[in-house]
Design a protein that fits this description.
Elements (H helix, E strand, L loop, with lengths): L1 E5 L3 H14 L5 E3 L13 E5 L3 H4 L7 E4 L5 H6 L6 E3 L4 H19 L2 H9 L15 E5 L3 H12 L3 E6 L9 E4 H10 L3 E4 L13 H6 L4 E5 L8 H9 L3 E6 L19 E3 L9 H18 L13
Parallel strand pairs: 1-2, 1-3, 3-4, 4-5, 6-7, 6-9, 7-8, 9-10, 10-11, 11-12
Helix pairs in contact: 1-10, 4-6
């Protein structure tokens, strides 16, 4: 018996349960609340989607968890000192969906769509100067699977693309940077900065006043990572000072974003409801099923999250 442990709405949990059982016909996957108390100690594996600590703690003998989501920073906080291993979702479809979003919203900024939207409100007929994509420099924070695929998508559409990672990486046709000095150097060359980093203690607030002031005046920021990557007060000041021209924000520390948040009202912020790369249930279930089947056959766990790095 494998419990599905989640804080999703009940109807969403039921949909996941149906899809997972179809993908794993030899397993018995049930909602966490439906596991009899006397059988919870028999569960060594759980499939999770943002589980809470109270429910997890009811299963005393869990060896590992398989998340159906790519982001696992909350799990890392919860299980930092636990022996339970965590496997995150690595889905090529998710990477392609994110690359599509990176291109779409980069084009939104590149072609001055926020300006034209304001002009329409004021009934202004005014053409902005066109900048060729080959002259637009896009820096990507994070060269994991999502970042690499997004970088290539942008490059294939004619942009100058750079990427930064904590350790050195080589990516064909992409200028790469690493370390603290590399971060500053890439920021200074980025007309658009796209955040695709995992949220860890090392990356929390990495986009702050210091970094924003290193960027060219009038540049823009896109955050598809996690809300905590950006220091909101610093971003708002940079926008008000016109150091940063526009910000596209898809992720927030509190979701849904509070109706009282000042981010909603800022004229140079575009708010998205965490839609840049939604998990595809079908492909996710296939990947989870293959990983669990391989584990049953070999006893080998899929690649697990490094609890020190947080990804």
């Amino acid at each position: 018996m494998i419990p599905f442990i989640s804080q999703l709405a009940k109807n969403e949990q039921v949909l996941w349960l149906q899809a997972l059982n179809e993908a794993l016909p030899d397993e018995n996957i049930v909602l966490a609340d439906d596991v009899p108390q006397e059988q919870k100690h028999l569960c060594t594996l759980a499939i999770v989607a943002n589980p809470d600590l109270a429910t997890l703690s009811q299963f005393k003998n869990l060896h590992w968890l398989h998340s159906v989501w790519a982001g696992v920073e909350k799990l890392m906080e919860t299980l930092q000192k636990s022996a339970i291993k965590v496997v995150r979702l690595v889905d090529p479809m998710l990477s392609q969906t994110m690359a599509e979003a990176a291109l779409a919203w980069s084009l939104y900024l590149h072609r001055d769509m926020p300006i034209y939207a304001k002009q329409q409100l004021n009934k202004q007929w005014l053409q902005q100067a066109y900048v060729p994509a080959s002259q637009r420099r896009i820096g990507i924070l994070g060269l994991g699977e999502l970042g690499c695929v997004s970088a290539m998508q942008l490059k294939n559409n004619g942009f100058q693309v750079m990427g930064w990672s904590r350790s050195a990486k080589i990516l064909a046709g992409i200028l790469t940077f690493n370390g603290e000095s590399g971060l500053a150097e890439m920021a200074a060359k980025s007309d658009i900065l796209i955040c695709l980093l995992p949220l860890t203690p090392a990356t929390k607030g990495i986009v702050n006043t210091v970094l924003l002031n290193k960027m060219p005046k009038g540049s823009s920021v896109i955050n598809f990572a996690r809300g905590g990557i950006i220091a909101n007060d610093d971003l708002l000041k940079a926008l008000d000072d016109r150091q940063i021209k526009h910000a596209v924000l898809d992720v927030f520390e509190q979701e849904p974003l509070s109706s009282h948040s000042e981010l909603w009202q800022h004229p140079n912020i575009t708010i998205l409801p965490h839609i840049s790369a939604p998990t595809n249930m079908n492909s996710a279930c296939t990947i989870v099923a293959n990983n669990i089947a391989h584990y049953r056959q070999t006893g080998q766990l899929p690649a697990c999250v490094d609890k020190v790095k947080g990804y």
